[in-house]
């Protein structure tokens, strides 16, 4: 009876004070954001770290070798990730700066063309007559413009301060998350052992067994998803680069590398990289930029309907239709974060339900074999 009474009180509180309760939960989660981000970073880096540890003198028994394996694997993993990110940035940023320089260099010519067009209006009596006959209150327009400029200056200053404050806060949170991630990776066995002892001492054995089983399946699905996503990004970036070289589009290497990185965002990542690629190409050749958009549309269809469901869906054992559904629903509910989490969460639920069905049919699932 006690647990039903507590449940009734919780439901009643949610119905009476929903905004206050969910607001408090939101504030609590926002405080934990650096820790959540650090745990996510640790999980992603740990996948590469585990792979490296398998090849770092696996049969060594010397104390110094065993003690050095983990720190060296962490260092190499972080350096590899930073090397890839910095390499892509060094490819893309100079080209993007050149594109902006080309745009600003083209501005005087565009302004001259507009001036010539405005001057030609004087020669068109019909347009001049309509402008002259129009009752335009230029004094009112001037006062509104001056008011906008006056209030806009303070608004720009406030926005600038807000932007710098957000950047500084973001950097602090990132540093805290990074340090927290290092602590998790370096001491994951101790943390895991402490959690196991805590569950064994205070929770029922049946519940502990089910929890470990669910965690095992979840870890398997998320690890496979991240590996498949990286492979899919590599395939898509390679195909984009080769296609751009074949059709003689400019900036093939930086655009292909950028699309390969942004493809880590399921299904729509190629569009994000394609938008930047369009800007880089449009400065050199607007016609080729339009053709590039057509090429990206075709490549995106191939990626969304052929490559992604098979590579990522195959790595996590999820049917292609469920992959598309997970990305669509996850994106609608949580934006980019929802897209990233939608597929592995759906794969985890699918695997748990499939294994439950197997047990009902008397078949032992692979995770329990």
UniProtKB/TrEMBL annotation:
Membrane topology value: Multi-pass membrane protein
Any one GO BP annotation for this protein: transmembrane transport
Location in or out of the cell: Cell membrane
Keyword presence, tRNA processing: no
Chief place of localization: membrane
InterPro entries attached to this UniProt entry: AI-2E-like (IPR002549)
Transmembrane segments: 33-52, 72-93, 163-185, 230-249, 255-282, 320-350
Pfam families from the UniProt entry: AI-2E_transport (PF01594)
Record keywords, A-Z: Cell membrane, Membrane, Transmembrane, Transmembrane helix, Transport
GO CC list: plasma membrane
Family as reported in the entry's similarity comment: Belongs to the autoinducer-2 exporter (AI-2E) (TC 2.A.86) family.
Protein name: Permease
Organism: Secundilactobacillus odoratitofui DSM 19909 = JCM 15043
């Amino acid at each position: 009876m006690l647990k039903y009474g507590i449940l009734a009180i919780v439901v009643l509180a949610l119905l009476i004070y929903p905004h206050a309760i969910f607001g408090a939960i939101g504030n609590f989660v926002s405080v934990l954001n650096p820790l959540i981000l650090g745990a996510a970073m640790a999980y992603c880096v740990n996948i590469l770290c585990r792979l490296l540890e398998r090849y770092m003198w696996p049969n060594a028994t010397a104390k110094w070798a065993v003690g050095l394996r983990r720190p060296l694997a962490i260092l190499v993993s972080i350096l590899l990730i930073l090397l890839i990110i910095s390499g892509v940035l060094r490819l893309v940023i100079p080209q993007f700066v050149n594109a902006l320089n080309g745009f600003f260099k083209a501005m005087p010519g565009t302004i001259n063309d507009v001036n010539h067009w405005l001057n030609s209006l004087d020669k068109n009596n019909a347009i001049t007559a309509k402008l002259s006959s129009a009752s335009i209150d230029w004094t009112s327009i001037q006062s509104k413009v001056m008011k906008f400029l006056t209030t806009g200056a303070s608004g720009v200053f406030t926005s600038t301060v807000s932007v710098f404050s957000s950047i500084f806060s973001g950097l602090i949170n990132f540093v805290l998350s990074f340090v927290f991630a290092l602590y998790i990776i370096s001491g994951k066995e101790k943390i895991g052992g402490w959690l196991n002892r805590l569950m064994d001492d205070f929770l029922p054995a049946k519940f502990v067994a089910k929890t470990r089983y669910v965690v095992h399946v979840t870890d398997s699905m998320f690890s496979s998803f991240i590996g498949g996503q990286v492979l899919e990004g590599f395939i898509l970036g390679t195909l984009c680069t080769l296609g751009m070289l074949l059709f003689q589009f400019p900036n093939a290497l930086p655009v292909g590398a950028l699309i390969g990185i942004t493809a880590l965002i399921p299904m729509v990542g190629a569009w994000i990289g394609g938008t930047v690629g369009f800007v880089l190409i449009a400065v050199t050749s607007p016609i080729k930029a339009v053709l590039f958009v057509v090429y990206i549309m075709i490549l995106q269809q191939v990626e969304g309907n052929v490559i992604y469901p098979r590579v990522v869906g195959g790595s996590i054992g999820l049917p292609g239709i469920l992959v598309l559904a997970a990305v669509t629903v996850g994106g609608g509910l949580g934006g980019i974060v929802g897209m990233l989490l939608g597929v592995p969460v759906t794969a985890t639920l699918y695997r748990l339900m499939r294994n439950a069905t197997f047990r009902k049919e008397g078949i032992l699932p692979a995770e329990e074999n």
